[in-house]
Amino acid sequence: MTNRNRSIMRVSLVGIAANLILSAFKIVVGIFSNSIAIIIDAVNNLSDIMSSVVTIIGAHFAGKEPDKEHPMGHGRSEYLSTVIIAVLIIYIGLTALVESIRKIIVPEAVNYQVTTIIVVSAAIVIKVLLGLYVRARGKKLQSGSLIGSGIDALYDAIISAATLVAIIIFYTTGWSIEAYLAACISLFILHSGIKLLRSAFSTILGQRPDANLSRKIKESIAEFPEVEGAYDLVVHDYGAGSTIASVNIEVDRHLKASQVDHLSRDIQKAIFKKYKVMISSVGIYAIDLDNPDVKKLWHTTKTIADKYEHIIQLHGFHADLNEKKIHFDVVVDFALEDRRAYFAKFSRELKEAIPDYELIITQDVDTSD
User: Fold this and answer.
1) Residue 191: C-alpha distances to residues 196, 203, 235, 345 (Å)
2) Is 234 in contact with 218 (CB distance < 8 Å)?
3) For residue 230, which of 67, 218, 290, 337 is within the disulfide window of CB 3.0 to 4.6 Å?
């Protein structure tokens, strides 16, 4: 097991201990005061314990070494554990909402004590400190489960604060709003569970890489003097510490194979050193804009493309003057509703402008910023 996974387990154990103490006190106080809001708050803390247990299990499986069946490792186990946590939170939120509605329909008298105020106030302080600690450690360890648990703990502090407000209102006015408050807490729990579930599924499905990271990687690659541009960056996330990418670069066609090989290795080393992202392959686009005929064809192509606001990139331009063929890739913005029709319209206009050449245009995918 890696040091990272051990750290995740230690942080999770701290969360389990804190939530176990809080839930125990809240359940006792909730029962004696007949407060559904405090009891649901306690149940929410119990869900945090289950979340921490699932996080520990996920970290254990994620720390397993790669094998024949899973050559990229088991890091995505953490994303599956996040899904389980989200489902647990949604279930608890639904159960609490049903009970809250029942209390609204058939209200029961509450009996708050001074002890109730002390316990709820202490819970707010503990939850804020715990949330800040777990979230900070989660960011440092790049653990989505820990970050989610930390945010959830801060939400819990807000819930406890709302409960405290309800107690104060009851003491000052005699109005009991706790069943309605419990319903609001339940909806809050449901919202956080659904949000966490959507985030986990998005990661598993292969969401777009962080815009800031992808831009920096491309900029770093473009800093190499032999590189005219970096395109088609695809990033695969196999869990924290296991990010693999591929990229295509434009270079002068006169570079020798040995020079291109050396350049590719230098790029791989530099990107891994800076961003801990392993570039598995570097594709090559050989360009020749020194030739005036090729340059003229490129200028015509670029001029027409600039008229199409949803064409966000052209790359890999290659013109074979002998065979009368032009190859290049076009990236059409995902924001456009009918990308195929837009691409076809551009292709037709370009063909009218360059009728003597066969156009081999690839509608590329906008994989990263």
Assistant:
1) 9, 19, 30, 44
2) no
3) 218
CB of 320 closer than 8 Å to CB of 310: no
Residue 324 in this model has a pLDDT that exceeds 70 = yes
Q: Which two tokens stand for residue 72?
A: 């990229």
pLDDT digits (tens, 9 = 90+) for 295-310: 999 999 999 999 999 9
Q: Is 23 left (phi over 0), alpha (psi -120 to 50) or beta?
A: alpha
Amino acid at the residue 72:
M
Lowest mean pLDDT among 150-159, 223-232, 320-329: 150-159
Domains of the chain, CATH where assigned: 3-205 (1.20.1510.10), 208-286 (3.30.70.1350), 288-369 (3.30.70.1350)
